[in-house]
Design brief:
- Helices cover 23% and strands 25% of the residues.
- It contains 7 helices and 17 strands.
- The protein has a 4-stranded antiparallel β-sheet.
- It is elongated, with a radius of gyration of 30 Å.
């Protein structure tokens, strides 16, 4: 083991110069401390490992090899196949084993995650392996997390008091989750709350979060799971209809005066085909004719080939239409 990456890389270069292949500097993590090592070879059996040890020690006199602890190591590699010079020279890590965990510390500029829509995040990034998959957890103070969440969930043009209410609801929801995902409290999608990093922050939202710092909604002395939806369609519903719970906390069904959600949306025709199949066609794909059925219902036609007849009045790309119509 070595005290610095430079010493490990020097040892790597010495081994490579003797003709030994597959030599990697490694960041070893254990009990909160870290050190550097050099790992050699990629043996898959004890016999191969013994043969490899003998071969390397013969080529590099003075070097003594021992089996490594693969549960706690980040193999440092350079990937020359990447497109930009900056990425080519940046260290890339391969996590070995299941217990490795590394913390990438952020600064005032945030940490950009290329694979996450190039978003930039406050706080630090914890990197680990969970159930064989790479896990990336943004470690960030709750109030700073809310700067992004509230900005992603609502418009910053909303009145200040509405932004404050949203901040209290988002804070309550996040805290009530506990360690729901084993390695994190929440995820960054609407499975929890939308969280897009610094990009969705806004000064008005930040002010609303700061003005309500620490405020939560409680019932019976416990923080409630303050779920919310993007709109109420004009009227709220009993929570048991939507969230399978919440009775006793939010029970009143009230008008929300929410007209903006419907503004500009297409309406749908409920149609009965000659085959007996019924379904829905959106208004921009259909037109009424002047003729009617014997029952007095309007006849219609569609305006394009292979127009979908949907099972519900909603475009669902993953659901097969009940039928297709032609003009």
């Amino acid at each position: 083991t070595y005290g610095s990456i430079q010493e490990a890389e020097a040892a790597q270069a010495t081994l490579l110069s003797t003709g030994v292949s597959s030599v990697y500097p490694v960041l070893q993590l254990s009990g909160g401390s870290q050190a550097y090592a050099v790992w050699v070879g990629e043996a898959s059996t004890d016999a191969e490992l013994t043969a490899l040890k003998n071969s390397v020690e013969a080529k590099a006199p003075g070097v003594s090899l021992s089996p490594v602890n693969t549960n706690a190591g980040l193999i440092i590699r350079q990937d020359a196949g990447l497109s930009t010079d900056a990425l080519k020279t940046a260290p890339h890590y391969t996590i070995a084993g299941t217990e490795s965990k590394a913390l990438v510390q952020g600064n005032g500029n945030g940490i950009k995650v290329v694979e996450r829509s190039q978003r930039t995040y406050r706080g630090d990034m914890e990197i680990s392996i969970v159930s064989g998959d790479l896990a990336l957890v943004n470690v960030v103070p709750l109030e700073q997390y809310l700067y992004s969440v509230v900005g992603a969930e609502v418009y910053s043009s909303w009145p200040a008091e509405a932004l404050k209410v949203q901040a209290v609801a988002a804070r309550s929801y996040a805290l009530q989750q506990g360690e729901r995902f084993k390695i994190a409290n929440v995820v960054d999608t609407t499975l929890s709350q939308a969280y897009n990093g610094i990009g969705s922050e806004n000064d008005k939202v930040t002010s609303a979060v700061d003005a309500t710092a620490g405020e939560v909604v409680k019932s019976g002395g416990k923080i409630i799971e303050a779920v919310f939806s993007s709109n109420a369609g004009g009227q709220t519903a009993h929570p048991s209809e939507v969230w399978n719970g919440g009775a006793g906390v939010f029970t009143n069904v009230v008008s929300s005066g929410d007209t903006s959600a419907q503004a500009g949306l297409h309406t749908w025709y409920h149609v009965l085909l000659g085959t007996g199949v019924s379904g829905y066609i959106r208004e921009d794909n259909i037109k009424e004719l002047t003729t009617k059925t014997n029952a007095g219902l309007a006849k219609v036609t569609v305006t394009a080939q292979n127009t979908n007849v949907r099972a519900v009045p909603l475009v669902q790309s993953t659901v097969e239409p009940v039928a297709k119509m032609n003009p």
